[in-house]
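re: ur question from yesterday

yeah so i grabbed the chain u mentioned. its 563 aa long if i counted rite. heres the sequnce exactly as i have it in my notes:
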Amino acid sequence: MVQRVGIGVLILVCAMVGDLCSAQEQIRTEFVVKHVSADSVYLEGGSNAGLAEGQKLTIRRKGAQDAPAAQIQIESVTPLSSAGRILPGDGDVAPGDIAFLPPEEVEKLKQRLASTDAGSYPQIISFTTDDPLDQEVRENLPKPPSPEVNRIRGRVSFDFGHLKQREDNTSSLYGLTLRIDASRLGGSHWNLNGYYRGYRHSRQGSSIEPMLVDLVNRTYHLSLTYDNPTSHWVAGVGRLFVPWASSLDTLDGFYLGRRHGKATFGIFGGSAPDPTSWDYDLERKMAGGFVNFEGGSFDSWRFTSTSGIAVTRTDWRPDRQFGFFQNGIFFKRYFAVYSDLQCDLLHAFPVAPDSARSPAERGLALSRSYVTVRIQPLRALSFDISENYFRNIPTFDERLLSTGLVDKYLFQGLSGGFQLELPHKLGIYSTVGRSNRSGDAKPSWDYLAGVTAADILGAGVRADLKYSRFSSSFGQGTYQSVTLGRDVGAGLQFDMQIGQQDFLSALASRKRSRFFNGNLNWILGTRYYLGVGFTIYRGDNENYRQSFATIGYRFDNRRLRHE
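ran it thru and got these structure tokens back, copy pasting raw so excuse formatting
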């Protein structure tokens, strides 16, 4: 009898030790980076895998054994995923990279699991139903809120500067820069995301036209959105894209939708404030409705399809009535097909006296079409083939050509390109197109090419050299630019850009301009930063010098709570 009891105790002890060892063997030390946004990193692994807020992980390129690429600190954790921020001064992080737990964090996790397993014991008695009294107590116990609830982080700064356009035309500059990511405000399902940067001029002399920096500043997006997984309604207001119809470009307005299974029906309205928009016009107003169907998974095949109608007015006069169609099919990162097109209903409204449209034009006409196929067989190599068509001349601000924000309008016709990451942190990219517009005597070959370097000669200097020759519906010309940047230590970084642009259109004489932009940013501790910038623009019609200084504050209500 004693022998049997001894054998039973031995079996029980072995089982408990085996469970303890099994739990420690299941500790995960590697996590895949699934998404990167600004200075935030999202990992495939959460609290179920042992991750917790405050942990620091090291990022390495997949399959690489050399020095770490960056270091991140976990800021929010859910059972299956987690989010962290890239620590200042570290390198770039890309999806597919691997995050490693350092040895000291692994040891802490083992100790925590060991202490948890040491208090466990085999369950001898179980109940098929809960005890009502115990269930009532559990339901009334306080539960920790989701890390996403009322999480507010970002940065805010005040800008001061000076602008000199001509000898008798100067102004002082003051402005505000805001970047914010606020989720589940006040415990609700409203979220505030985006950024804003704007200047105001205290003018002396004649009127001042918008500068290049001012035009770039107006490309911001800042929106308040509602997205409740348990509700059929979705909504958004601010400067935003309609999520299911981004081909409409930026809207200063709203959208409201209702979900029915995998379909979403909605309405939208607003103006076209972004100077990079195809139909940019501050006086243009637009309203319409849409229906979207989507399905599949990001881990396999997925699709999205949107159809809708819209009307526009310029200076409150009827302008366009059109339909839009946007479709996409995607397979992981390897393959994607995307298309969007717009069809105008001609002579839907009385033709304005100054309109270029003939009163005899009636029926449907294709006004805009864009189709692209992207193939990425390797993480370092991707190819794309596109077909671009515009019936009407785009109205974006041509001064933005040198910024790269309007490259999608440079080729009208069939084009193809590639991007290739080379050893030693080098990269090349190129696009070649055959433009064949209506009215052209013969087709023309256009091209864009560039070279990037993330670490020149091991000095940490980043570079981007770009050259483009284009002949499109809005005009023809060339532009060249060189961008350089470097991080000095953990808190100091600078970048500068120098370039030249030649532009000739049917609406204006040849314009040649040269420009220089420089920025220096200094991070002071964990909360404050200081920046200075300088811009010189020399052109046939515009000449100015613009300088500014920035002092800012970084905030995170969760982090401050733990400090």
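noticed a couple things. The CA atoms of residues 372 and 386 lie 4 Å apart. also DSSP finds five helices and 28 strands in the chain.
anyway ttyl
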